[in-house]
Amino acid sequence: MPSQRIRDLAGELNELISQVAIRDEPDDEADGQPLIPTVDDWLEIALGTYNMRRHREKVFGSPQLFGEPTWDILLDLFIGELRNRPMQTTSVCLGSQVPQTTALRWITLLEKEDLVRRYRDKTDSRRVYVQLTDRALRGMIQIFMERCFWLTARKRKGLPALFLGASGGGLRQNTEAIVAEAMAQITRGRTGAG
Questions:
Q1: Domain containing 133 — which CATH number?
Q2: What are phi and psi of 121, to 5 degrees?
Q3: What is the pLDDT of residues 37-52, one digit of tens each?
């Protein structure tokens, strides 16, 4: 049967790839530790996504065609976290590509869903900042995880054992450790409502 033959070939291919990946493992992975993307790797992936969204709007001539203000807000805040830059509410509203009142409604919804928090500036109470909650930050890391590891592997000219898992576990088995490490890197300099 053709479908069985395809499954057999896929199995053989996966076996060959895992053998090559184990044999060609870079020196910094010799101890079995996975390659962990840096904050710069996460930022490169997030900015690429953001820039693609803006380019798409430019090409088709209208941000309304692809309106996802909640995604734009989360993406903008994720980039702010990666840059360790607090985001004022007005900046977040502008980044959402919708009128300010609409953006504020979306921010309120995201706040009710425990995805963002607002806090006042300690030195000037007129300024209000918006920040991803740990729950949202964890979600954003998970969304970009595979692309970020692909980027990290490509930069280092090899496929990390983490993908194929010398022990057979692969990326999914290590998700929690990866997310925890990424969150620690990203929140290291976090200010505000923490």
A1: 1.10.10.10
A2: -65, 135
A3: 888 888 999 999 999 8
